[in-house]
Amino acid sequence: MPYAIEVTDVKKTFSGKQEVRALDGVSFNVEEGTVFGLLGPNGSGKTTAVRILTTILNADSGSALVLGHDVAKQADLVRSLIGLAGQYAAVDENLTGRENLTMVGRLNHLPKSYVAGRAKELLEQFDLADSGNRTLKTYSGGMRRRLDLAAALVARPTVLFLDEPTTGLDPQSRNDMWEVIESLVGEGTTVLLTTQYLEEADRLANTLSVLDHGRVIAEGTPAQLKSDLGATVLEVGLHDNDDVARTASVLNAIGPHAPNISGRVVEVTVDNGPVDAMEALRSLDQAGITPTTFTLREPSLDDAFLALTGHRTEDGDGEDGSAAKGSGGAGDRAGQPESATVPVGGNR
Amino acid sequence: MTTTISIPTVTGAPLATGVGARVRWAISDTLTVTKRNLIAITRIPEALFFSTVQPIMFVLLFRYVFGGAIHPGHGINYVNYLMPGIFVQTVAFGAIQTSIGLAEDLQKGLIERFRALPMARSAVLAGRTTADLCRNVMVVIVMTGVGFLVGYRPTTGVLPYLAGTGLILLFAYALSWGFALIGLSAPNSETAQVMSFPLLFPLTFASSAFVPLADMPSWLRGFATYQPVSVVVTACRSLMLGGPTSHWVVQAVAWTVGLLIVLPPFAVWRYRTRT
């Protein structure tokens, strides 16, 4: 199958007060008609990758092709084939929904009559028909995000880029957005989406790459990633500091993953949730340890990072976008282990 | 010159090959962005209203507070001397709106969307400056009315008067491109505004807009005589009130055309390279 997107060893460094290496040799391929997820925390380089692929930004080195066209050398051709919707909901709030869609259609050089029909169609499809003639100031966050996506679709792009399409949305709006994205893929559109949520990548993406500090640290299908992480995480909270080490050794005996300690919480990834949990309870009881909390949960992105890199995602790292503009700190990562790309699901 | 346009039946935007299609699309893109900015102006009528309040205050201030102490000489009464200066000052201050508007578009991510569209790179800036030109037409008409109310009586004919007004508007358009450059360089709209003032104050006040140059100290007079705002004000005065026109009008046109040659390419370059 031909690739819709081919990224080879792309590097990008932002100079400024503090030099930020946003992309440090990133490579990935996206097959036509599939959804590809770029998963990573704030500041990992996701937005920078999208901005390069959508011709907004030039890479320092490496090559990026969209439908076989070089994004730097054939920028106008690429622009005519892609759509971009982002976390910043780039729509004009002084215009109505319909005026926004019309503007984008006209800037794509589509005929007026076609644009009018397409705008109507999209407003209906995105459940905005009733509010199409109201200015965006009256829209809710979810409505803006839907209109932003509709604007990206006016010219029926072959490849669609969605930069954190659901960040900041409430659960209901997020679900609506997921359904819209799924229906697009049914129509054959290739989608590249960035997300901070493992759940979102799991639900939408056929394949994904995990980015950390501008490097791809894992790639594969969501199922492979999850099986690599273990099905569930067992979390034991303790009252007494003295119990922490003993609890860790009890949980370590369950295997095959090593437990992690943070404060008075010990957590371990387990492959067989309920059975392992019962075993853990029995062993804790025998050891005379009474936990204050005992939880089984789905692995989070944080767990994925811990499993893949040995470090947690860095909170308070600033928005991806601001880091890309050089004002947010991508963090000092001296002493962190250099992580090579490993296929998820391998090496077990 | 060959033009080939392929309209897509299924996906994607049409592609232009050839200079003709590119030029036509650059114009249509500019008009689309102009329309968008004009709609925004009509959606916030308060902004348009208050953008005329400040110049009206200046008219009242100089006409009735300072005016009595300023004697332009040559038998010209002060209100006639003042109004061409007010027109130029008003459009110069109005150019701040260009920088604020672009800084806002950048801040809100709209420029990101525009940059990912197959539109002409110049259209975002040309559309903004053209919309601001339309706004200036409105503002100049209002200010002319205000001028007549406080006793302004131009003494030349209709044609020279319109020529003077046209010169003011063209100069305003050129200034807009300069302030577009500021807007594209500012981190946000508030900063774009404060970045604009240090440029505007010397240009409008160290000029012949409000007081005769003869009353200024000699070290300032050189700058104040030949800087573009003074030149345009003096040219307009001669067109609206009579006096030797050609010398100043030629200089004013030279300034305006010069700015229009230098500033737009520079601003478009900034738009392309701003990350």
Strand order of the largest sheet of chain B: 1-2
The global form of chain A is elongated
Strand order of the largest sheet of chain A: 6-7-8-3-9-10-15
Helix count of chain B, per DSSP? Answer: 11
Order of helices and strands of chain B: EEHHHHHHHHHHH
The chain pair with the largest interface is: A-B, 38 and 33 residues
Could you say which structural class the secondary elements and strand pairing of chain A correspond to? alpha/beta
Distance between the termini of chain A: 29 Å
Number of strands of chain B: 2
CATH-scheme architecture of the largest domain in chain A: 3-Layer(aba) Sandwich
Mean pLDDT figure of chain B: 89
Q: Any idea how many domains of chain B?
A: 1
**Total of DSSP H or I helical runs spanning 4+ residues of chain A:** 12
- The name of the CATH topology of the largest domain in chain A is Rossmann fold
Characterise this structure.
The complex is a heterodimer of chains A (about 350) and B (about 280). Chain A is of the alpha/beta class and about 350 residues long. Chain A folds into two domains: about 220 residues, P-loop containing nucleotide triphosphate hydrolases (Rossmann fold), CATH 3.40.50; about 70 residues, Alpha-Beta Plaits, CATH 3.30.70. Chain A has twelve helices and 15 strands. In chain A, the strands form three sheets. Chain A has a seven-stranded mixed sheet with strand order 6-7-8-3-9-10-15, sandwiched between helices. In chain A, strands 2-1-4-5 form a four-stranded antiparallel sheet. In chain A, strand 9 and strand 10 form a beta hairpin. In chain A, helix 3 packs parallel to helix 5. The radius of gyration of chain A is 23 Å and the shape is elongated. The two termini of chain A are about 30 Å apart. The C terminus of chain A is likely disordered. Chain B has a two-stranded antiparallel sheet with strand order 1-2. The N terminus of chain B is likely disordered. With about 280 residues, chain B is an all-alpha fold. Chain B has one domain. In chain B, about 75% of the residues lie in helices and about 0% in strands. In chain B, strand 1 and strand 2 form a beta hairpin. The interface between A and B is large, with 38 and 33 residues.
